[in-house]
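Why show two proteins at once? Because comparison is the fastest way to build intuition. When a single record is shown, students tend to memorize it. When two are placed side by side, the eye starts asking what differs. So, the first record is below.
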Amino acid sequence: MPSDSPAPPADARRDRRSVLVWAALIAAAAVLPIMMGKDFRDRLVAEAAPLFGRIEPHVGVGTVPAVVIGAVVVLWGPAAARRLSLGRLAALSTVVLFLWSLSLGTVSGWQRFATKLTGYDQYLHEVPGARGDVAGAVREFARRIPDYQPDSWTVHVSGHPPGALLTFVWLDRIGLGGGTWAALFCVAAGASSAAAILVTVRTLAGADTARAVAPFAAVFPGALWMAPSGDAYFAGVAAWGIAALALAAASGGRRAVGFGVAAGLILGWAIFLNYGLILMGVMAVAVLLIARNPRPLLTAIPAALLVVAAFAVAGFWWLDGYNAVVVRYYQGIASFRPFAYWGWANLAAAACAFGPAGAAAIGRIRDGRWRTPLLGRPAALLGLVAAAVLMMLAADLSALSKAEVERIWLPFTVWIAAGAGLVRSGGGARAWLAVQVAGALVIAHVLMIYQ
């Protein structure tokens, strides 16, 4: 079982270098706009670049709970992870991540939390119109994506496939309409990613590694951007799709078929929530390579295609939507946001979400011994981290994410932060948990995220 004892000196030096690179990247992305002057900063459309928000120190209703939750996980999280059964640990990790997210999200006040998804550019703005004619909304969805039409979708709806809007329409139909329920739903879905990650890691890397990961998944620094955002929901869905695929790859018989179908349906649904989640295919390939078992593709791919076919029959073709989104993206502020800055500053923003311990995990990737079987070894977790890094880089190079990636890339950064479970230098798990928690608390109390 991974212990809380310090790592060898060579590992400690490598981890320090990784954290120094992490800190230097963030510092450079923050300082450069100041040096470049007001005209350059105005083109960034992010007052607190590389993060999307403004510098405004504050405290709020979530301050005390966030500090308490962080302290409890730092002091007792590793011990609890070693003691609890894996089922209870997965459930507890999800509950803690939910409360941690909720606390960080309400540092700026409950009202901002409850109304964030109700703004004119948000999903709920379009729910009343879509609720009366869901079939028509799906059928006309791609046509309404480009801007400057009388019935153009609002920003967040136009930037995603129809599954995102449909989710909030369905919530409204079952009596969970409005900003508060939508916010709580997104946070809960995002928090469930902790359990999904533990299931995946337990299946591929072993129970001991899953136990080491649990505290880091519970106090994921990016939780600040989960509370609330649709991207938290997307991250949870994608994580469960990967968990189902891992279970399919590690099972046999009917269980393998069942989990393979579930993986295909979930991941198929995921790409109709967020176009960028097509990149989860990289993580899916990593899972199958680690397990050395491609057979789940025989059930997962047909299941995913069923989702694609269902939307096609309803009148929405994914590629049409994607092409329209590219047009819409460059009709807005992306047309003047400089990629020369955001192409690398995006990585600094993402670094704030996965934290210094996540950076140390990235630095460990070359220790993976990739030519030897990974299944059942801690190095399998490094394979997942490597896949997440590749997804992040691919999203960055697409130039369709200039700013706001601390939120948009949550489906990727949750996996990088989980990799911190393998880092044991500099005082062990408690020390790394402490820096993760401290970083999240500082950002939550200094940055006022834009509504």
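Second record. Ask yourself what differs from the first in the token line.
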Amino acid sequence: MSSSPRRILLISEHADPLATPGVGYQGGQNVYVRELATRLARLGAETDVLCRADSPAQPVREQITPGAQVIRVQAGPAGPWPRDRFGEVLDEFIQQADAAWRVAGGYDLVHSHYWYSGLTGLHLAREYGAPLAHSHMSIGAVRRASLDGDPGAAQEALFADRHRAECTLARQADALTAYYPGDAEDQQQMLGASPERLHTVPPGVDTTVHRPLDRREARQRTSLPADVPIVLFTGRLEARKGLADLIAAMPAILRAHPRTRLVVVGGTRHRTDADSAAALTAIRELGLQDQVLMAGSVPQQETAAYYSAADVTVAPSRYEPYGLVAVESLACGVPAVVADVGGLAWIVGDESVGDRVPPRDPDAIAAAVAGVLDRGPGAYHRACLDRVADGLTAEHWVDGIQRMYRAVYGTVRTH
């Protein structure tokens, strides 16, 4: 990493890189930060990831890979803490970040993820003079626009606080990442970000992990039936991910392809969380108990087997800043039907690798899935792999992050 920072602090306040994705708030950010830390360490940068401890039983320091570790700090009451209430423990988190900085002897660069982490990173950058790179991960104004109706006074106040913070970060961070060109435009128009500070760096996947596996072997590994069409949903089960719309589409999918099974990867294995309970209720009401398998969360390294076992992955999110699930599916040679929102629409692009549908539209989901199943699993394989090779690998992504780091490394902060 010539001319690059040698000691890097990544801040990811609510998303522990070693947590299992698909449970609670754990999802794409965890995967993103873990993969970034791993890649930076392999390239010779000593990398720490700072996050809030979810349990006193967790080790304060835990290795991610040689050269990279997570540092968990206590902030607020012991135990899990809602992401939307992180402002209540932010001051303590910043104090702990200060202490961690001093123990480590400082860092060459700070890279924060999400707005609470950004405020923490901005404090450290001001206090110690290190350059700050920031990844919004999502934009509050875009998230607000995706909601139905009035979210209530408390949520409106939170969105207002978030917007002010994101505007501050857009002005004062030394560098900003954007997922794709439309995200860069949103940051300029909504947050006042300077084009000179924006670096469009689409997150990519590790193609040694997410790669095509033999379908028969993949179905054996996942204990899925060998001779039926498989529709895959993977991700958190919260409402904005659109699982309810996919479940509602299943009766129409079954009319076109009667033997189809929907496999849901995400949520808790014991199905006791509220989101899993809501999904199970919808499944029972539609009489789909035999057609839908709730697989629970699985380790990230095992998801390739589920993608490879599937005929199509569906990401029907009502709002999605990026959509790493779609990239992972394409990397396994499996087409994706996605909501025509955010990064999902940009990733899928045209019908060569799947289809795009309006959000919140079960009929459109059903028609698109049936169309993909009509063509058969092999029809999209080559185009899916080509799409990932064209700038959506982890190597492309980390190369872009390094270029951003080099652009600000050695910057002397004056604000």
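One difference worth noting in the second protein: The chain has two domains: 7-204+393-408, 215-389.
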